[in-house]
């Protein structure tokens, strides 16, 4: 079946079998490899994208239900200044090691800072609780978010 | 539409269904997405609370005020999961570990079910027939859940091995409805379905009746009795998440702590 | 040497960081090629079974399926493995036995992953299930083992005035790197050559096995490093490499294979679960007189790197202390579980949990402070280890213990903040019933490979001009898995050559072996190779410059007074290229008593954990984890801290929540729903301090940094949990049921059995000569009756 949606500001059409996830459509379908597949169960946050502005695990979104949706992936954050501040801070604070979880974190962190730039320590951790990282121990990712907050303010 | 093709699988947030799909465990003949059915996302807060089956946990957290439900909704999965998961999904999946189900049972909520033949309402406790067995006939669709507001003396506790994104080893919802002089106690993950601990409910009701529902801390004897009645209602098993022994132990503990905290805030 | 802002010692940001934050960094699972098809693996659902029949006809007939291969289609050697003698089947064939749940039986290639999945469902396999051997002690008694190693020193029958005994268990941890197994095989030249792009820890280690199993000359195979999403030991063994190449050659199409998370749990080795019986003897002042231990590791179905894990668990089995009399026996069993192999810490994690618990037992018995008793026994430079080796490098253990104690403790629990309580948003804990505990642990292990292995690394440095400016290019086969080797390499070249612009070429097998990224060895070994090659380039630069040029400055050559003489540009009309093969000093094999100068060097660590436990529910929270680590020299302090913190996270996991649960040979929790990794909300405050006492003979004085903080953090957390609860806690991961003090009501029968006298559990111990491998490489334990 076909589904027509908007990805990162561009109209796209996908050919897929009915049960395919949005994650699969974005990667194998549209060649947008930045969103990652680490668990396919919504337990790790590596597949985080925005669907109509709402943070979702794309592995749990039925692609076929995305007709006319606006999807934003890590690639679509492009020149957004908030995303840029997050990305820069992640590198300077040491929040990136293997990098597999990084796109998911950047999407979640950007969404948080745009929605609630004044988030306190507890709110930050609650917002990041759905993203797993196996390399860093998280401390430098949280530090990166704080640096980005200062930068944006 | 469901009446015409009753073997259609319905999907809203996809947080349960898509996992099975991604793992190749299910391949439904037909899928119907409820994404665009706006009326399924309505939430009304009045003397009753009504939550449409398609409203997400995040939407609920922004609107409803019933403490047991709010606390449970906050522990569901993670933020992106809460942005997708729905009460309708929790009910349709009908797992004893569904976080929202103990509060719904303790609040004595009713499930609103629609079909081509019309609408029916079923109490949540009666709706959950068995593990993954909701009282849903072919051609029926859960459209919402409704419960009477029950004040603020409520609690929801969840035991797990990790501080986030964890399936409950055991959970407990407690509602002390002063206005209606009713106590609801519901247990999650300790039986084939969510369990209403009725003996514990009756005990607490009568204890509160004796003191005219005045706020205050229950005696150790009352807490002990309440806790052991709650634990006796549990029918836990050993599984990879926890042992029956621990589940029973922690149910008693959750019951005692929940009652202690809520009685103080009556 | 030139002082470079982005050279050795600076916390330079990693060069691939920006691309990673933008989703532009290509991981193995992101690879594509024109005409690509997809491979998938059919795996046995039985832990042990005889394969009677395999029929692939229905699968082959499915439209869109390009190939279905079984063991009868293998063109080369039928087995692979990390040991010299290969023991693991590429595919299990008819009349052969499945040895673990998930063992591959067939592979398919098809137009889409969904089509490949459907094809798997059409392959008919008749299994005759057999009873799996699942008890590692039982396996040893039956004679099914990989290796036994004895460390015997002094008088094994020595007596001591104070003796404490304990039985300990460590569960099976999984590396769980977020990037699952993935790779892409591209055939060329009519199938006479092949390129494999794969996420791995060792390109040449893979090449050896791929060449054997394809029956192709090594020169016709090129293995390229694709982006690696973490490893921690999970990628030392072959996963899909041979399979993808077989399918690519059978179809003459590029074949991509990747494992989903569930398959990943079956597709790589795990940490060896351990059962350990320990006896520590000391004098009245707490000085250690003897350590006796029996360590049984479950090796699983095939050898992998088990032999080396056995050696490590034994060598480091008494901890970083002086012990005059030692009798440690370590053996690994062959069972019908997934093969176990390398995971960060590599045997030392398991024995550290036991020996640190023993030190605390001694302290309690003698009423000596647990830190003080360690102080009285810690190793120092010049001391002899239990293997007889003298510590010739740095060993600042006593200083580390002091520094660890001096790190400020966290503030008391804020009882008014429910989120601060154990269990977080579950609101289960009651502030009045939360007890805080503090515990310490010390650990150590070797850097690089041991026992006489001639471990080396190769690197090539090319200095030329780009846009008229000097540019250094480095070619190395070393695997970057996230640890930051790519950053370190650039820093070394900058410092050696005074050139800021450094480019790392893609890692592949077109350059010499760099050895695997394991044993915390790459900074030392590949750093040494890069340094060596850079120094050769420097010599040539100075030769070209001629006197009075004697040194390099930033972008120029200098005279003896440090005056710049000429910019490098004028010396680089032609580029300069040198390769260097770096070897560490020779080591010896251990003799029949486990004695020998077997290790290159050692990394030490001291940690303190602070935990809060709700005594009634047993939910726990690690509040603070302080680490003091002996790093020799921190080439990139930011990255070193990152290694420590990542290790601590894995330590929190092993202490409280991570375990592969297996029953009857079946894995019960192959998913992130039930194999729990710590989230940000589970992490303690981490305070880490680096001790830099340069290691002689190592480039810049470095040691390795990737493993130590995982070696002793589970032990430190367990010690803190014991302090909070007063419970014995002989096993990690510790469950809430145990912490709630109710586990004794339904005791784990194996733990109960372990607490009986050792002789009744393992009736005899095998004495097998260590050193060269015998015959078939899989040593059968010969159980001898005690005389």
Q: Assign the CATH topology of the largest domain in chain B.
A: Uridine Diphospho-n-acetylenolpyruvylglucosamine Reductase, domain 3
What is the percentage of strand-forming residues of chain C? Answer: 25-35%
- Cα-based radius of gyration of chain B, to the nearest Å: 18 Å
> Approximately how much beta-strand content do the residues of chain B carry?
15-25%
Task: Write down how many β-strands of chain B occur, each being a DSSP E stretch of 2 or more residues.
Answer: 13
Layout of SSEs?
The complex is a heterotrimer of chains A (about 150), B (about 270) and C (about 775).
Chain A: E1 2-7, E2 10-15, H1 22-29, E3 48-51, E4 54-57, E5 70-72, H2 74-77, H3 81-92, H4 102-115, H5 121-128, H6 139-152
Parallel strand pairs in A: 1-5
Antiparallel strand pairs in A: 1-2, 3-4, 3-5
Helix pairs in contact in A: 3-4, 3-6
Chain B: E1 9-11, H1 17-22, E2 31-33, E3 43-45, E4 48-52, H2 57-61, H3 67-75, H4 79-82, H5 87-93, H6 101-106, E5 110-115, E6 118-123, H7 124-127, E7 128-130, E8 133-134, E9 141-148, E10 154-159, E11 170-177, E12 182-188, E13 195-196, H8 198-210, H9 220-233, H10 244-264
Chain C: H1 17-21, E1 37-43, E2 49-55, H2 57-61, E3 65-69, E4 79-80, E5 88-89, E6 97-98, E7 104-110, H3 113-122, E8 124-129, H4 136-142, E9 145-153, E10 162-170, E11 182-188, E12 193-198, H5 203-214, E13 221-225, H6 241-251, E14 255-258, H7 261-267, E15 274-282, E16 288-298, H8 306-315, E17 325-333, H9 348-366, H10 370-375, H11 397-406, E18 434-447, E19 456-466, E20 469-476, H12 485-497, E21 502-504, H13 522-545, E22 551-553, E23 556-558, E24 564-567, E25 576-583, E26 601-614, E27 620-630, H14 637-656, E28 662-663, E29 666-667, E30 685-691, H15 708-711, H16 713-725, E31 731-732, H17 736-739, H18 749-754, H19 758-761
Parallel strand pairs in C: 1-14, 10-31, 12-13, 16-17, 20-21, 27-30
Antiparallel strand pairs in C: 1-7, 2-6, 2-8, 3-7, 4-5, 9-17, 10-15, 11-12, 11-14, 15-16, 18-26, 19-20, 19-25, 22-23, 23-24, 26-27, 28-29
Helix pairs in contact in C: 5-6, 8-9, 9-16, 12-13, 14-16
């Amino acid at each position: 079946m076909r589904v027509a949606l908007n990805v990162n500001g561009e109209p796209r059409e996908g050919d897929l079998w009915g049960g395919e996830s949005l994650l699969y459509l974005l990667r194998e379908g549209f060649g947008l490899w930045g969103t990652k597949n680490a668990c396919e169960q919504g337990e790790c946050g590596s597949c985080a994208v925005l669907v109509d502005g709402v943070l979702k695990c794309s592995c749990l979104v039925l692609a076929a239900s995305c007709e006319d949706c606006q999807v934003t992936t890590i690639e679509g954050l492009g020149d957004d200044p908030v995303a840029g501040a997050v990305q820069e801070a992640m590198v300077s604070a040491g929040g990136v090691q293997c990098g597999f979880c990084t796109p998911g974190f950047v999407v979640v962190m950007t969404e948080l800072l745009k929605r609630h730039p004044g988030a306190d320590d507890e709110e930050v951790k609650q917002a990041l609780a759905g993203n797993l990282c196996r390399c860093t121990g998280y401390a430098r990712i949280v530090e990166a978010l704080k640096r980005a907050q200062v930068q944006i303010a | 539409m469901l009446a015409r093709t009753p073997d259609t699988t319905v999907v809203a947030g996809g947080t349960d269904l898509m996992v099975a799909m991604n793992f190749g465990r299910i391949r439904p003949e037909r899928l119907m997405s409820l994404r665009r059915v706006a009326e399924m996302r309505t939430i009304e807060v009045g003397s009753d609370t009504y939550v449409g089956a398609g409203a997400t946990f995040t939407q609920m957290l922004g609107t409803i005020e019933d403490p047991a439900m709010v606390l449970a909704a906050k522990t569901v999965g993670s933020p992106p999961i809460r942005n997708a998961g729905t009460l309708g999904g929790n009910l349709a999946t009908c797992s004893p570990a569904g976080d929202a189900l103990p509060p719904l049972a303790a609040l004595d909520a009713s499930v609103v079910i629609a079909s081509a033949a019309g609408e029916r309402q079923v109490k949540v406790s009666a709706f959950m027939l068995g593990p993954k067995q909701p009282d849903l006939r072919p051609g029926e669709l859960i459209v919402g859940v409704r419960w009477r507001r029950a004040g603020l003396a409520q609690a929801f506790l969840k035991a797990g091995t990790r501080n986030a994104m964890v399936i409950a080893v055991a959970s407990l919802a407690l509602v002390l409805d002063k206005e209606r002089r009713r106590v609801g106690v519901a247990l999650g993950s300790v039986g084939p379905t969510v369990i209403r601990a009725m003996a514990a409910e009756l005990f607490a009701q009568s204890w509160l009746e004796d003191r005219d529902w005045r706020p205050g801390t229950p005696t150790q004897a009352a807490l002990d009795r309440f806790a052991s009645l709650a634990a006796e209602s549990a029918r836990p098993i050993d599984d990879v998440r926890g042992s029956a022994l621990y589940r029973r132990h922690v149910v008693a503990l959750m019951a005692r702590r929940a009652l202690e905290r809520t009685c103080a805030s009556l | 040497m030139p002082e470079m802002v982005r050279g050795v010692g600076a916390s330079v940001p990693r060069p691939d960081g920006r691309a990673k934050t933008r989703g532009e960094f290509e991981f193995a699972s992101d690879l594509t090629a024109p005409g690509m098809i997809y491979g998938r693996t059919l795996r046995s659902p039985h832990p042990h079974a005889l394969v009677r029949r395999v029929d692939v006809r229905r699968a082959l007939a499915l439209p869109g399926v390009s190939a279905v291969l079984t063991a009868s289609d293998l063109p080369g050697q039928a087995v692979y493995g990390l040991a010299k003698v290969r023991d693991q089947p590429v595919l299990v064939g008819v009349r052969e036995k499945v040895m673990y749940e998930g063992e591959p039986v067939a592979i398919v290639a098809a137009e889409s992953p969904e089509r490949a999945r459907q094809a798997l469902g059409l392959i008919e396999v008749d299994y005759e299930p057999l009873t799996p051997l699942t008890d590692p002690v039982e396996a040893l008694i039956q004679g099914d083992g990989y290796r036994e190693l004895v460390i015997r020193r002094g008088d094994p029958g020595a007596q001591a005035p104070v003796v404490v005994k304990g039985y300990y268990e460590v569960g099976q941890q999984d590396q769980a790197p977020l990037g699952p197994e993935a790779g892409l095989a591209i055939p060329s030249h009519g199938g006479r050559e092949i390129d494999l792009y794969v996420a791995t820890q060792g390109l040449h280690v893979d090449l050896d096995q791929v060449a054997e199993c394809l029956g192709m000359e090594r020169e016709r195979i090129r293995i390229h490093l694709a982006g690696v999403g973490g490893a921690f030991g999970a990628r030392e063994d072959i996963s899909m490499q041979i399979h993808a190449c077989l399918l690519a050659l059978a179809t003459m199409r590029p074949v991509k294979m990747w494992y989903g998370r569930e398959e990943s749990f079956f597709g790589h080795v795990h940490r060896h679960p351990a059962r350990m019986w320990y006896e520590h003897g000391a004098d009245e002042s707490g000085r250690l007189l003897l350590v006796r231990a029996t360590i049984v590791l479950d090796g699983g179905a095939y050898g992998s790197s088990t032999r080396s894990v056995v050696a490590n668990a034994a060598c480091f089995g008494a901890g970083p202390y002086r012990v005059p009399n030692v009798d440690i026996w370590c053996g690994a069993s062959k069972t019908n579980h997934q093969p176990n192999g390398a995971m960060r810490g590599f045997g030392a994690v398991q024995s550290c949990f036991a020996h640190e618990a023993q030190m605390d037992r001694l302290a309690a018995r003698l009423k000596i402070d647990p830190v003080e008793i360690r102080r009285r026994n810690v190793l120092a430079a010049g001391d002899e280890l239990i293997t007889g080796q003298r510590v010739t490098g740095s060993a600042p253990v006593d200083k580390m213990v002091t520094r660890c104690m001096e790190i400020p403790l966290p503030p008391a629990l804020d009882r008014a903040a429910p989120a601060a309580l154990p269990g977080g948003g579950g609101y289960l804990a009651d502030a009045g019933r939360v007890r805080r505990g503090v515990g310490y642990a010390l650990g150590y292990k070797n850097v690089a490979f041991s026992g006489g292995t001639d471990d080396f690394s190769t690197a090539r440095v090319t200095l030329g001009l780009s846009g008229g400016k000097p540019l250094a290019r480095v070619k190395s086969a070393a695997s970057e898995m996230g640890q930051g080797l790519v950053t370190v390499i650039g820093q070394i070249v900058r410092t050696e050559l005074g050139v800021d612009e450094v480019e790392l070429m893609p890692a592949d097998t077109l350059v010499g072996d760099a050895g695997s990224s394991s044993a915390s060895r790459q900074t030392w070994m590949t750093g040494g190779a890069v340094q060596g090659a850079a120094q050769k380039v420097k010599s040539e630069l100075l030769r070209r410059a001629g006197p009075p040029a004697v040194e390099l400055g930033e972008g120029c050559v200098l005279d003896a007074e440090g005056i710049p003489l000429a910019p490098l540009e004028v010396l680089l009309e032609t580029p300069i290229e040198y390769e260097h093969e770096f070897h560490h000093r020779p080591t010896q094999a251990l003799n029949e008593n486990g004695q020998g100068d077997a290790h290159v060097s050692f990394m030490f660590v001291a940690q303190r954990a602070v935990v809060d436990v709700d005594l009634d529910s047993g939910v726990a929270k690690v509040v603070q984890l302080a680490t003091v680590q002996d790093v020799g020299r921190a080439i990139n302090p930011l990255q070193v801290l990152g290694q420590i913190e990542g290790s601590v996270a894995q330590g929190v996991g092993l202490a409280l929540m991570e375990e592969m649960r297996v029953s009857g040979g079946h894995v019960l929790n192959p998913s992130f729903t039930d194999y729990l990794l710590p989230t940000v909300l589970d992490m303690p405050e981490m305070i880490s301090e680096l001790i830099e006492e340069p290691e002689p003979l190592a480039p810049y004085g470095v040691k390795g940094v990737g493993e130590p903080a995982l070696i002793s953090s589970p032990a430190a957390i367990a010690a803190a949990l014991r302090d909070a609860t007063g419970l014995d806690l002989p096993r990690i991961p510790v469950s809430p049921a145990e912490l709630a003090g109710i586990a004794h009501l339904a005791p784990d029968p194996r733990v109960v059995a372990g607490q009986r006298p050792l002789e009744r559990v393992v009736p005899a111990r095998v004495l097998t000569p260590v050193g060269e491998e015998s015959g078939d490489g899989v040593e059968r334990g010969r159980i001898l009756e005690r005389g």
